[in-house]
Amino acid sequence: MTSFFELKKNNTTVQTEIIAGISSFLATSYIIVVNPSILSQAGMPFSAVLTATVLVCFFSSLMMGLYAKNPILVAPGMGLNAFFTFTAVLGMKVPWPVALGAVFWSGIVFLLLSAFNVRTYIIKAIPRPLRYAIAAGIGLFISLIGFSNAKFVAPNPATIIGMGALTPAVLTFIAGLLVTAVLVTKQVRGGILLGILFTTLAAYPIGRWWGLEATGGAPGTLVNWQGIFSAPDFSLFFQLDLVNSLQWSVVPVIFAFVFTDMFDSLSTLVGLAEAANLLDERGEPRNVKRSLMVDAFATTMAGLVGSSPGTAYIESAVGIEAGGRTGLTAVVGGLLFLPFLFLAPLLSVVPAIATAPAVVLVGVFMVRPVTKINWGQLDEAIPAFLAMVLIPFSYSITQGIIWGFLSWTALKLISGKKQDVTWPLLIVDVFCIIALILH
Length: 439
Hints:
mainly alpha; two-stranded antiparallel ribbon; 18 helices
């Protein structure tokens, strides 16, 4: 194990990798319940989507660890599942079996792009200032997700976003954030995991001994026990419609999956690699081609088993911050998904406010590369700034990277610096424009 994952070379240990894998799993495990809750609105059986979600997470994360040897978990992507349900099925009236076929064919396109190194060339085309900005933008984005999950920030009609009410749940989140920050600052091994466990225990009394939960002030409990066992449901296996999904009217759906998933996975891989120094000797993201092949495999498999496309998960940064540096982290995280084919109700024990402090603090880790940007050179600083802030402001990694690329190209060409605009970058720009049209 030490030699296969090159633990010594990456200055890590089996214990550290296991703790990192558990941390990433806890930060990502919400998808086991959230993905079915979204896709079931398209008319798909909740229990069957849950089974499909677990299998995509398990096999894809395992493949990322063993084949690509990167500490990144793979799961059905948030945003992609919303597009599947609300745009394709409910909006465009595409039957869900046909939409699953579109997911499968988009995975095949991913595989071809990855096999012929097209996506690798795209990564190499991303200017370094934009890479640093994407990493920082993702950090801000997942911190916003953490604050939102804890209801620390909430929608506000007057100011778009504002502070949430200081409910018992929010106060518990603040306590968990403080404890987790202290543990991380003191470099306690497994500090993030311990913070998640502490916040879970601290949330137990809410609704039982004192206080109300944060959602609407309605009585309830945050830490819930809903049993242990639930049988897997394989009814969605191979229910995709491969023939009708190739109709001309479905082609825009396939392209939307292709471009959205491509930008999400590219930006996630680049951002995590820059933030964690997971780079090869040329300064490129480590094992990038293999990582992209895994991402393509996850999408193809998702269509076959009954889920929206799979993608590399930014929440993997939680495990990376806990010390994960090799594929062993992804293997551990992937293995932890498998029991939830039968034990899904156990996930209800860990509430959103328990993982929120870890997700928020990962933002500190992710924004570090922003110091490498030359803020005095405005033709690079402005595109970097747009990429960084539009990721959280638009609530979309894709939109941040699109406007970062397009503004970089425009400013460089107008400034007479054509040498800074490579032909692969121009190809990326074309993809960006197509993605905007299909959005």
